[in-house]
Design a protein that fits this description.
globular; alpha/beta; 2 domains; TIM Barrel; about 350 residues; 14 helices; two-stranded antiparallel ribbon; eight-stranded parallel barrel
């Protein structure tokens, strides 16, 4: 499998890599088996996070005996030094390793302050000096944060939503990272499940020699599909471009990145998560979203005032009220299809 240099980290990672958030939905045995199968299929880069329930445990079980042959990244959203340090130590334990190749600040609402002695960055620097982590990056859903992180020169990698229905401003991040010799990790290459043609998605990514997509994989069938598509190495051609043009026209306004700029809602709707509920249901343990608390949150969508403040504040020009209505409909339909599994 082709490899891509992850910016100034100089890590060489496979051009199709594995996002391990979805393995939360597998049993421990099946999740570890799937990750091991990905490694044996040629994938060498695995991305997980402290927040992904037992994902780190499964990565550790699957890869501890081939640790020197793989690249592992994990994340912490802790804003303070103590919390971040605790997360790093816990990750090392679960991953069954004494070092993390790439540690990332998770879903950053702002660029971490490198000068705060009690902030998370201080914990990362301390861990790096101790050999616990080797490289430091960040993930975010906010375009301004991504651009500021690149300009700061303080991070070795950026992880950001990146697909063929991304905005032109989002797509420009790839070239900005390349100019800064900063690794670029593309999450949500299927736009949270909106895109379904793996071949087209792979062909789109192939245009960027510095972009590393981490495909969220949760079944053996999905893994086989990505390995086959990667081996085929499809390139952009006119039929592929036609599909992309069609999908951009139809879907570009439907993908919530979860950035939170739309909040707060005057009607009390938890827009940030409600507007991407279809992705949460299908890419993480879905049962947690059918508690009485979550049912009440989703039903609040019916209380929408029609003020459209959320749409006005969305940096991606989403028609947020209509997105929310669709999510509530999908939420109820998903329940009817899966209620016997609760």
């Amino acid at each position: 499998m082709k490899r891509i240099r992850l910016g100034k980290t100089k890590l060489q990672v496979t051009c199709s890599s594995m996002g391990c958030l979805p393995v939360q939905r597998c049993s421990v045995e099946d999740g570890a088996k799937l990750i091991r199968a990905a490694y044996e299929g040629g994938i060498n880069y695995f991305d997980t996070a402290n927040a992904y329930t037992d994902s780190e445990l499964k990565v550790g079980l699957a890869l501890h005996d081939v640790r020197d042959k793989v690249v592992i990244s994990t994340k912490s959203a802790a804003p303070d030094r103590a919390g971040c340090a605790a997360h790093i130590d816990n990750s090392l334990k679960l991953l069954q390793t004494d070092y993390i190749d790439l540690f990332q600040f998770h879903q950053c609402p702002a660029v971490p302050d490198i000068h705060d002695p009690d902030g998370a960055f201080a914990a990362a620097l301390e861990a790096k000096a101790a050999g616990k982590i080797r490289h430091v990056g960040l993930t975010t859903h906010r375009i301004e944060v991504a651009e500021d992180a690149i300009a700061s020169g303080n991070f070795e990698t950026l992880q950001f939503p990146f697909s063929y229905i991304s905005t032109d401003r989002d797509l420009a991040l790839a070239e900005k990272c390349k100019a800064a010799d900063m690794g670029f990790i593309a999450m949500k290459g299927l736009a949270g499940g909106l895109l379904t043609d793996a071949r087209v998605c792979r062909a789109f990514m192939s245009q960027y020699d510095n972009v590393v997509p981490i495909w969220g994989i949760q079944t053996a069938e999905e893994l086989a599909q990505w390995l086959a598509v990667t081996a085929e190495d499809p390139q952009m051609d006119e039929p592929t471009r036609a599909i992309i043009r069609r999908d951009r026209k139809e879907l570009a306004g439907s993908f919530c990145r979860g950035c939170g700029y739309c909040m707060p809602c005057p009607a009390g709707i938890e827009i940030r998560n409600s507007a991407r509920m279809n992705m949460l249901l299908r890419r993480s343990p879905w049962q947690q979203y059918y508690t009485p608390e979550w049912r009440e949150k989703m039903e609040r969508i019916n209380d929408c005032l029609g003020c459209r403040q959320c749409a006005a504040k969305c940096p991606y020009q989403l028609d947020t009220p209509n997105v929310l209505k669709y999510m509530l409909k999908d939420y109820n339909e998903f329940y009817e299809a899966h209620k016997n599994e609760l």
